[in-house]
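Hi C.,

You asked whether I'd gotten around to modeling the 165-residue construct. I have! Everything is below, sequence then structure, no commentary in between.
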Amino acid sequence: MDQPTSGNTIEQPTTPRTWNSSMGELDTYAERLRVQLPAAPPGLLDGYMRFAPWIAIVFGILGIFGSLALMGLGAVLSPFLLFAGAEGVQAGGALFIALIVALLTSALEVVGGYLMLQRRANGWWLLALGLVVSLLSNLLHGAIFSLLIVAVVGYIHLQVKPNYR
C-alpha cells in the first residue's frame, strides 16, 4: 500500500488532437499571417467576396464536365494503349489517377464556392486548400507567372478571412 508523498499529485489525462483543435490552430496561423501582411483595398476585397465564389462554382462545374468527358475518351482509347506495352499501360493509369484527382478537386471547388456564398468558414478553407495545392504545384513545375497569380489571389483570399464564420 504505497501512498503518494504529496496529496496534490493527480495526473491529468491527455486528450488526443481533434479536427476542431487542428482547425483552431490553422485559424490562428492564418490570422497571424493576415495581420502581418499589408491590408488590401476594401473595394478589391468586396469584389473578391462577391465574385470569387461564383468563379469557383463555374470553373468547378466546367472541371467536373471536362474530367468526365476525358474519362470517357480515356475509356474509349485505353485498349489502344496496350499496343504501347508497359509504358502505355503506365501512362493510362497515370492519366486515370490524374482525372480522378481533377474530378475530386473540381467537386470540392463547387462545394467551397457554394459555402463561401453562404459566408461559411468551411468554404473559405476549401478554397484556401485548393490555392495551397495550386501554389505548390506551380512551385514544383517552375511556372513563375502562374505562381505569382496564385500568390496574389491567395493574398486577397487571406485578407477576406474575417468575413467567414
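If it helps when you're writing up: The mean pLDDT is 85.

Thanks,
B.
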